[in-house]
User: Fold Transcriptional regulator GlxA family with amidase domain from Chelatococcus caeni.
Amino acid sequence: MHHVAFVVYPGFELLDPSGPASVFTGANRALGQSGKPAFYRVTLLSAEGGAVESSSGVAVETRSITDVRPGDVQTVLVVGAEREHLLPAVADPALRAALPPLVRQAERFGSVCTGGFVLAALGLFDGHRVATHWDACRPFADAFAKVAVDSDALYVVDGRLWTSAGVTTGIDMALAMIAHDLDATIAGEVAKRLILYARRPGYQSQFSPVLKAQVKGDSPFADLIGWMQANLDAPLDVPSLAARAGMTERTFHRRFVAATGETPARFVEAARLDAARMLLSRGLSLKAVAAQVGLFPPARLAEAFERRFGVAPRLFRDMHAVL
Assistant:
């Protein structure tokens, strides 16, 4: 069996191990339904073993990391926490002694959310590109000059190193691991059982244009933006949007830029292209995608897509549809 070990410590974020662990056990369930043996074994490790309390107050039972022999674990993932709980983990002598040999002999290793600080402090990220929680990107880059931080990705795969941005993105990364270890069909079945809207690929931004707009201030256009996201195939020009918002075109344009940091035209195109990227990664035809996101005919989609992402949409679909 493929042994997956999550390394936890007092005050860890409970969703960091529990979400991905549910994905791996879900893969075992899907395999069992087709008459195949379980593939994954999941273990929680800590410095001393025993019960370890998460930041939410829920405690989990763990094994001591010192009891695990290097080579017995195929995937090692360190989970994240807030700063006050993370710093003691970074300095923990048991973790500092046990993690390097465990990582060296694992098939892959990495982190969920801010767990990367623990591994980076040991020099295990040097020369690699990684993801971490958006709020930790700047401190991470400042602390570890030899590590390239991708502040936009949901998760990053760099050789044996897998890192995810934060909390729920660990689920996306675990699904990608299943697709890599087994196949995309199993990963899709797990995502469906967990009622996930979509298996998000790692290149997808931590923040969609919609979310970026919604987290700004008191989001005066939250309702309009939600409607836009659900109606990308509708006319989304300034006159139409201004009328829907009950404003003059000039007032709407000025207030929208102030609220979102983008002009309406740039915001709409970004939202449409991000939606197109997701649909293409699911294998849809260019014609279908262009119609769904309001960039019809397909030539219009192709021009805008290549201008933004630097790759033709057909090639993008062929490269990523199986992820």
Residues 2-194 form a domain with the Rossmann fold fold (CATH 3.40.50.880). The two ends are 23 Å apart (CA to CA). The CA atoms of residues 120 and 167 lie 19 Å apart.
